[in-house]
Write a structure and sequence with these properties.
Elements: H1 2-15, H2 20-24, E1 28-34, E2 39-43, E3 46-50, H3 57-70, E4 81-85, E5 91-95, E6 105-109, H4 118-123, H5 129-140, E7 145-149, H6 155-163, E8 172-176, E9 188-192, H7 206-213, E10 220-223, H8 230-238, E11 246-250, H9 254-266, H10 274-284, E12 287-293, E13 299-310, E14 316-326, E15 337-341, H11 351-354
Helix pairs in contact: 8-9, 8-10, 9-10
Length: about 375
């Protein structure tokens, strides 16, 4: 089996030869193929057009057919959009003509060879050292956290970094459409969506995986990205004892992310009254970490916000604990600034002392309330 896999990888490497140098270049984060003769890359958060091309459309099709086969999928007209991955874990999304009018379009989000953690984000100026300590404590307190951001903002990378703070003693289940997360713990079970065959047999959706995962004694459930009705299953799991859950979604602000989660949950068509659904969302999600990509290519955490429940009018109540403030020296070439504490303490300000985590507190001591702990 190992020999067959090696032969397959060598074949795929040959088929992807026009973009192989960029796949091997650690400074390149994404390769975008806009037809066989039009290729861009992303380096340091910025796009570059490169002088590379496939021999023709047929050569690109052959390469992508092999990529799809690696994850058991078929590149056929009835599947115009396919998610796959390369042997190293890099994510591949393929859109075929006629949906892609300029020819087959491919986006390859590269698998990072470096194991990232929260200190690494501090070094990259994506996060302050103080906020990293706060998030680390929240992970150990098993808070339910949503990572929110736009496309290409670094949500999956941030989720990977947060996951490094999950204790080794816990059993972690990871559910994804296409496997991307790179957890470093030993006790990790990874599950991936499978499409049905041509007769409609054998498929399993993210909702199916989520329901099955609840019966497998998880300590933590990580959903790579919430995109649809599975949001309701995740919300209900969060409110029924499965604390410490993590997921990502597309939204531009912490408050927008709650609305987005609500909209996706409504796709489940269970007839739940809107106020009841909002109550569940507000009860399930405890923290939202917002990340953004700036015009200079940098990726930074812009908000760490706590969800406090619903107001008397039925609206979400969100308070910002950390907020990014751009400095006056920011320019079109470089954004400067810092992620600063807003001066607001979280509602769980005594939790680290009850949870035996007081020795982990150094930089964030003003956020907590040791004096309120009863003797």
């Amino acid at each position: 089996m190992a020999q067959v896999n090696e032969i397959y990888q060598q074949t795929l490497k040959h088929l992807l030869a026009p973009v192989e140098p960029f796949l091997e270049d650690d400074s390149v984060s994404e390769v975008m193929i806009n037809g066989w003769n039009d290729i861009y890359i992303e380096r340091a958060g910025k796009l570059e057009h490169v002088d590379a091309r496939f021999e023709d459309e047929a050569a690109l099709f052959a390469a992508m057919r092999n990529v799809a086969q690696y994850v058991g999928k078929r590149l056929v007209p009835e599947n115009p959009s396919i998610e796959a991955r390369l042997p190293d874990g890099s994510r591949v999304h393929i859109i075929q003509p006629p949906a892609a009018r300029q020819g087959m379009s491919v986006a390859i989000r590269k698998f990072s060879k470096n194991r990232l953690d929260l200190p690494a984000l501090v070094e990259k100026n994506s996060l302050s050292e103080e906020a990293a300590e706060f998030l680390g404590i929240c992970m150990m307190l098993a808070k339910n956290i949503i990572v929110s951001g736009g496309t290409g903002s670094g949500k999956t990378t941030l989720l990977n970094c947060l996951s490094t703070m999950i204790p080794e003693t816990e059993r972690i289940l990871v559910l994804e459409d296409s496997s991307e997360l790179q957890l470093q713990q030993d006790h990790v079970l990874s599950f991936e969506v499978q499409a049905p065959d041509r007769q409609g047999r054998g498929g399993i959706s993210i909702r199916d995986l989520f329901r099955a995962s609840l019966r497998m004694r998880p300590d933590r459930i990580l959903v790579g990205e919430c995109r649809g009705a599975e949001a309701l299953d995740m919300i209900q799991a969060m409110t029924s004892g499965h604390s410490g859950s993590l997921s990502t979604l597309h939204a531009n602000t912490p408050r927008d992310s709650l609305g987005r989660l609500e909209t996706m949950a409504l796709m489940a068509n269970v007839g739940l009254p809107l106020f009841a659904l909002r109550s569940q969302v507000a009860s399930a999600v405890e923290l939202i970490v917002q990340i953004a990509r700036f015009h200079d290519g940098s990726r930074r955490i812009t908000y760490i916000s706590e969800v406090l429940g619903l107001s008397d009018d039925g609206d979400y109540r969100v308070q910002d604990l950390y907020r990014f403030r751009a400095s006056s020296q920011s320019s079109a070439l470089q954004v400067t600034g810092a992620l600063e504490w807003t001066g607001i303490q979280p509602s769980f300000k005594t939790a680290p002392f009850f949870g035996g985590l007081s020795d982990r507190i150094s930089l964030t001591r003003p956020l907590w309330a040791e004096q309120e702990v009863s003797p």
